[in-house]
Amino acid sequence: MPDSSLTRPFLDSFEASRAALPGAGLDWLASLRETGIARFAERGLPSPRLEAWKYTSLGPLGKVDFAPARPDSISIDHLPTLLPHGQGGHRLVFVDGYFRADLSRVDDLPEGVELGSLAALLTSAPDGLSEHLGRVGAAEAGEQPLLALNTAMMADGFVLRLRRGVCLAAPVEIVFVGATGDGALAYHPRNLIVLEPGSQATILEHHAGIGDGTYLANGGTEVVVGADAALHHYKVQAESDKAFHLSTAQVEVGRNALYDAFLLTTGARLSRNEVTVRLTEAGADCRLNGAYMLRGSQHCDTTTAIHHVAPHTNCREVFKGVVDDTARGVFQGRIVVHKDAQHTNGHQLSKALLLSDRAEVDAKPELEIYADDVKCSHGATTGDLDRAALFYLRSRGIPEVEARHMLIEAFLSETIHAIAAQGICPALMASVGHWLSDARMRRAA
Amino acid sequence: MLEIKNLHATVDGKEILRGIDLTIAPGAVHAVMGPNGSGKSTLAYVLTGREGYDVTEGEVLYEGRNLLEMAPEERAAEGVFLAFQYPVEIPGVPNSTFLREALNAVRRHRGEDTLDAMQFVKLLRAKVKELGVADDMLKRAVNVGFSGGEKKRNEVLQMAILEPKLAILDETDSGLDIDALKTIAEGVNALRSPERSALVITHYQRLLDYIVPDHVHVLARGRIVQSGGKELAQELERSGYAAYVGEAA
Q1: CB contact under 8 A, A406 and B87
Q2: From the CA of B142, how many Å to the nearest CA of chain A?
Q3: Which of A387, A399, A406 is closest, CB to CB, to B93?
Q4: Is B48's Cβ below 8 Å from some Cβ in A?
Q5: Which of A357, A297, A360, A354 is nearest to A322 (CA)?
Q6: Chain A residues touching residue B110 (CB < 8 angstroms)
Q7: Interchain pair A407, B76: CB under 8 A
Q8: What is the pLDDT of chain B when averaged over all its residues?
Q9: Is the pLDDT confidence value at B240 over 90?
Q10: Which among A388, A397, A413 has the least Cβ separation from residue B102?
């Protein structure tokens, strides 16, 4: 039985806003939303009683009275971009979940590239969306009430579709800006990425809070990587200190295709990134890596499931965490090798540094193997900074705080530099540097 | 330069140093020799402030100041340098970045301007050439995948860059072939000056053929049991440590 006090406000919110949601006249979309809200009503907001939510409680959501976000035209002096001017190609900006054309750069799209806002496309070209929207996520929607809620409530988000063989050279930056309002806002951005066979793209998602307001971002993302296509999908989550960031991604990877993802988390008081990848055809390759840096009482949950459905598929997954104060990191990584998926390789590693006695990391790796000719491994370590290395640096005159930061940076640098689109590394390392310099300032204060 | 007075130190509650007295004048090179387990490395770590090495009695004055009260980084910035017996590997930190951070930290402490990347590369190139350090050792992570000899060369390179006033070399000769030994000794000798001192810790006399000490001390069971000139090292090479181990027992 779902906890109705937590679930009810979202059901009410759906009833109140359903008529105004984009694409209200589309039957297929209406039925998608109906299915979504029914599933959500049935399951409710997930609670730690569910195995998949063992370490993360959404209870704190019940203490906040969220109002649905509305499009607004607030002016933004300083757009939180991670790509230096000139490096970025096209850019989409969303404020409180809604597309802002005035802040975005989507002109001069090459032939075969569709890039834009979901709300706009639901009005102008809905037929192109119906094929995939809600389909990729349907596989496990019953187990993912948050995605079901997102499906019901989705109002906007980004859509990137690359036609066969199209290569988008410059990275596409998607900026989600939150925390602009006075009251607590909730929004449910829905994103769709479709790479047709042989196409290539790099996406950098940046979720940033620019105020200190409370908000809930419950995102849903569906990704299709067609045969011989390559998607580099990187996400930096630097929401404001009071934000709740929930995200469910469903990814399908086809023959000889690559899904190369990185999730860097530094923000939000409570965050959950849930990623499910299905390697559906031979040669599909998934690299799902990430890092989290937490302090204060932050809670960050990374839950992944990689399904080797077809033979000759590979995955490599490394998550690294740096956790200070009383913060808590959770890593749940499942690798499932289905019955027919012979000759697959799966490697998973979770490593965390605990910077304080009260910091905590819960790592739960799970291998489920139903085929007999596979190579799978997993490991999890948790520890303190290497004391011998720390002394070595200090014995060369490097002050303790600097030495600690060098070691933290080095710890994360290894995994960041393993991403395929090397041009993005400086942006990710800058986020790490920002967290560290913030730590230095807090210590000094 | 350095005055060690009645120094006692424990590791894990076990007394390793049991009353060391040693004075090093500016410009002097002292060798401390002794059998395994005599406390040589403990002395090096106590002087550089490694945690887990607890001083229970005595004092150490460095240029008249209480060395033991200083943090490791302060000792380094004030000119104390330890060439490690087992240099530490630090994955993810490029060696050249580490060298520059170290030099700039020390320069900042001294109130000198820090060096930018260009200035540093120029300085580094010159030192690298003198010491026969391979270029790729600078790009690789600190000591990661270095051979034993490369690690020791890297220690001497750090010393050449930081130009310490008191260099402590802990078994820098172990695991080196004769050519590497000579290069390293040249690096150390190049730093010799009337203001700089060195404490060379070694098990074997071999290194002292190339870094000729002014004084030689024998350390056994946590005490200096004999001191003499450079000829003492040769004598030890012939007779071994057996006599001292017995005597101190």
Answers
A1: no
A2: 10
A3: A406
A4: yes
A5: A354
A6: none
A7: no
A8: 91
A9: no
A10: A397
Give the per-residue pLDDT at A176.
96
What values do phi and psi take at B146, rounded to 5? -75, 145
pLDDT over 70 at B247, yes or no:
no
Contact A396 B102 (CB under 8 A): yes
Chain Cα centroid distance, residue B201? 7
Reply yes or no on whether the pLDDT at B249 is more than 60: no
Q: In chain B, whose CA is at the least distance from the CA of A413?
A: B92
Q: With beta carbons under 8 A apart, name residues in chain A contacting B73.
A: 394-400, 403
CB atoms A387 and B72 under 8 Å: no
Per-residue confidence (pLDDT) for residue A141, from 0 to 100: 58
Distance CA B103, CA A36 (A): 60
Contact B23, B60 (CB under 8 A): no
Contacts of A400 in chain B (CB under 8 A): 71, 73
Q: Pick from B90, B115, B155, B157 the residue to mutate for testing the A interface (most A CBs within 10 Å).
A: B90
Residues B220, B34: contact at Cβ < 8 Å?
A: yes
Of residues A264 and B245, more confidently modeled = A264
Closest CA to B150 of B216, B89, B212, B227: B89
Query: Using one digit for the tens of pLDDT, what is the confidence trace for A367-398?
Result: 999 999 999 999 999 999 999 999 999 999 99
Name the band, by pLDDT with cuts 50, 70 and 90, for residue B166: very high
> Looking at residues B220-248, what average pLDDT do you find?
82
pTM of the model: 0.91
SS3 content of chain A, % helix, strand, coil (to 5): 25, 35, 35
pLDDT value, residue A56:
96
Position B248 scores a pLDDT of 43
Return the pLDDT at B131.
81
B73 part of contact set with chain A, CB < 8 Å: yes
B84 touches chain A (CB under 8 A): yes
Whole-angstrom distance, CA of residue A48 vs CA of residue A202: 35
What DSSP string describes A379-438?
Answer: EEEEE---HHHHHHHHTTT--HHHHHHHHHHHHHHHHHTTSS-GGGHHHHHHHHHHHHHH
pLDDT, position A211: 82
Angle between the A145-153 and A27-43 helix axes, to the nearest 10 degrees?
A: 140
Residue among A397, A402, A410 whose CB faces B91 most closely: A410
* Low-confidence residues in chain A, pLDDT < 50: none
**Distance separating alpha carbons of residues B84 and B166, to the nearest angstrom:** 14
**ipTM attached to this prediction:** 0.95
Chain B residue at shortest CA distance from A400: B73
